Amino acid sequence: MFGLEVGMGYVLGDYFEDEPVLILKHCVVSALALDWLPPSSSESDTAGSAFSAAVATYKNYLADEMLSAVIPDYDGSGYDILAFVWFHGYADVYVTDYRAAYDHNLRNLLADMQSEFQNIEIGTNIILQIGGGGEIPDANEAELRNIQACVAEDDASNAALVETYTFAGGEPRNDELPVHYRGRADNYIAIAEAVGSTITAILDGNYLQSNLCNRPTIDAPIATDAPVTTDAPAMTPTDAPAIVPTGTGNDTSDTPSSRSLFFGVLLGIIVTGLKL
User: Fold this and answer.
1) Are 134 and 256 in contact (CB under 8 A)?
2) Per-residue b/e over 128-154, b at no fewer than 16 CB within 10 Å?
3) Which of 31, 93, 154, 207 could pair with 201 as two cysteines, CB 3.0-4.6 Å apart?
4) Model-level pTM?
């Protein structure tokens, strides 16, 4: 099985025609509450191992000598970071503590990734909403989908949500579970093309943010200047196994099986505007 970079590459390649586009991917199977933990969510301000490795990978390949090796005509005068893509969720969704902290951790991850590239603004954060459960997900998946929608909606000027549940159909391949979008290449290509089309719509000024965030109804108003996530517990990154076993977390009743957590992360940045 391949990742989303194939379908995204076709869409973006057609859009930019002769301009070089780089898709830098770092894929690690782990929870946002563990190895992907951003430094702002850590008690010690120390990032999880996957977050740190991803940043190191991006910076390595964006060094002038590496860009010149990949693109011989590159003149070393700069580039643009078109987007940051986050395709993740199933490593956290069936562990109660991880799911509860996902909103806090995702907001911090997006902010911390931008801080790693202080002199270059990331154009758009693309959040792919998990959708392996199809049109009617279980309660845990529905909760995490809503979290992802709210994070994108609250940062509408810098983030975009891509729904994926419509691409979870067809007969399963190789006994794959729904979290793998039934192991079907056509589903992954469709998701990838949706990501590419979202990015091109943003560039053309035609993107409309989906208002899918379902906030609980409350009686008292919330101060608009109040921090959103200050009460969320800080976590400590560990070198725990990337696959979270059944029984991790306070409540194991919402974990259907450890197999359901075998889902990879596509975490990547898309680079354009390379000066030739």
Assistant:
1) no
2) bbbbbbeeebeebbebbbbbbbbbbbe
3) 207
4) 0.81
